[in-house]
What does this fold into?
Amino acid sequence: MEGLTTTKAPFIEKAQAPGQRFIHQPYELYSEENHRAWASLYARIQDRWRRHATPKFLDGVAKLNLDPQRVPRIEEINRFLSPLTGFSAKPVSGYIPAFTFFDCLRNRDFPTTITIRDSSKLDYLPEPDMFHDVAGHVPMHTDKAFADTLVRFGEFALSAALVIQDLKDKELQQFRARSIVRALARFFWFTVEFGLMRSGTDIKVYGSGLLSSYGEISHSVESSEVQRYPMQLEWVVNQHFEIDHYQPLLFIVDSFDHLFAMIDELETWLKNGRLNNVAPGEPTVSDADVESFLTAKI
It folds into this structure.
């Protein structure tokens, strides 16, 4: 069986060739190796979730009733998830442009990768895979406050597209789009992907990049090499990041209500022009990401 191994899946290649972004999950294509990879990833991270994950994440894992031995079926995930917050996992063939991604969130769809990493590369994979998306992200989508925050990200992206498209000069549109998308990507990275949260006197993890990483979840909370600071908007939108090593700098929010309020503040900054020229550096904003905001149907 060919399997659905990340970077080695003919099914995905066939979907990507004509530009098909949204797909179905061909569950019969998963190989036994794929299922073993999922089972290994899921089993070894349990103790670290119990020690470091926010209780809302642990509640979400229980509510989704994930199979610890077999790659989950998207339709089964949605059967448990959708009645709770209206969110659904939406299978994709890989990368989708930035505006499309955030507009999915606005409509309570979460673009979800269906491939699973090779069992010989369990510790790190630069591309998202199903363990990252389903085990790292989706349990948080069972929480209403967090789900509403994701929708708020999508609403911000829509406001950004309106601001960008309202400009008359094409070159200025592109420059502003790169800056605004870079600011949004950094904010998303340091919150939804790599966010920490206060829990009494403790610091807990809610970011999916940490929650899906066996090594980094403990490192993020316990290591003296990590700088941890209260969330500061002006810092976050100007802070570059790199994806190929443990993060040396992380930010702490007080609650999901706090995070939601910060997106409100981010939108105020957008309308006041404070995101028009954020600091250069990573992440790179692709031409496709820029074009997705320039051509978004409002």
In short: The chain has one domain: 10-294. The beta strands are 88-92, 109-113, 196-199, 202-205, 227-230, 249-253. The two ends are 43 Å apart (CA to CA). The longest strand covers residues 88-92.
